[in-house]
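Our collaborator T.R. sent over the components below with a one-line note: 'Predict the complex.' Nothing else. No constraints on interfaces, no templates requested, no preferences about which chain binds where. So this is a plain run: every listed entity goes in together, and whatever single assembly comes back becomes the starting point for the next discussion.
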Amino acid sequence: MTSSEFQTYIFAYLPQSAQAVPAGKLTMIESGTEVQASQFGYGKRYLQRQDAYAIDPASLALQSAQDGTVQLYEPANGLTMFGAVRDAMPDAWGRRVIENKLKAQPNSLNESQYLEQAGSNRLGALDFRKTQTDNAQAGLLPDVQDLSYLVEAADKIETGEYVPEHLRQIFDAGPSMGGARPKAVITKNGMEYIAKFTAKDDAFNVPQIERATLELARLCGLDVPATEYLWLANNKPVMLIARFDRKPGLNNEQYRTHTVSGLTMLGLHESESANSSYVALADVISSSGAKGFVQQDRKELFARMVFNILVSNDDDHLRNHAFVWDDINKGWRLSPLYDVLPKPQVATERYLHLSVGKQGRLATLDNALSMAGQFGLMDKEAARITNDIAMKTREWRTFFESEMQVPTAECDKVKSAFRRPADIGLDFVEKRLK
Ligand SMILES: Nc1ncnc2c1ncn2[C@@H]1O[C@H](COP(=O)(O)OP(=O)(O)O)[C@@H](O)[C@H]1O
Ligand SMILES: [Mg+2]
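Returned assembly:
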């Protein structure tokens, strides 16, 4: 198969501004639906900016602006695409949306087509434009009032039916956002939210349970964006989660914060996620974290790992962790928490996706404590954090039923996901507390 070359400018939305400027030129060599190689060179003017940031932390560190020569970079670790470019593109769900719009077969388009077709409202602060003078692609985000139509359109996309004319606003509802579950980006009172819907094979009310679990995480002290649970007039449940990569600015503008996945931060390919670990994420916080926040973020990461163990959220892969650029402290912050869902199951021996401690991915509290030092925590402090989260998640049902209005029958469907701390090493935690 012959190769073709695709070129585009990467635009970067500037911190505290609604303006995007050209940051440099991206070239991708494609052969059919495969990307064979990528190359990027920063523009000189971008490098001279005080507020310039690295487009990709693992592969595109900002070169010294004084040097004057423009360097061309390739992705680190032999990757064929830059992680930050991949993060600004759709995964399974967004691809189905784009194919529906173009009446194309599943996975039949080139990566560059998915990249271009995803619109200008992407994860984080990057955009892709054909020339240095192009404007952002037009497209108004739907409003929360349009949710019933969006859900109807999403159902059609899931079943492979073409979306009719009057429901086409789903095509402008952030198809570039990642993940596999049906979703849309909407605005509500000038703020942007991701709306997550049901999927056709769901075994329980996923929007309601995901929302309740995120709120349980907040109760455990974790950093969680604002969430809401809605029951639409057409009897469809929806979860809203406020976007952490958007901030309200002046004149009703939305400012964008550069955001990359954990995968990009570590410079890894998707297929390497399952060999990675929470310690690898803690290490990257140590080396690239924002000044003054390294310890706070490592502790937060440790607490998330413990929470995931206790609620059996084993979908904790490196795209379900993210980092946001802190322009003031010139470093990366761990993003707020998202995509946390309890997974009901019968197995007593359970594993997370990422490695937890000395016993690998084994989802126990003693394993979580086994490498606490790597998160900058003393044994006793790690035990205290673990114990606190275990005591709160143990009361999940009361919280779900009385605070989150989750019906008893729904709680029953997910109860096997919630671990009894005593079954997974609480005694070890208690010993360390003394
Ligand atoms: N609150 C949020 N703010 C900004 N980006 C988010 C937020 N929640 C999720 N994302 C981004 O959207 C992607 C898809 O969302 P996610 O909840 O992981 O969906 P799925 O359940 O389909 O995997 C994530 O991988 C992340 O990049
Ligand atoms: Mg996800």
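Summary for T.R.: The first strand starts at residue 4 and ends at 13.
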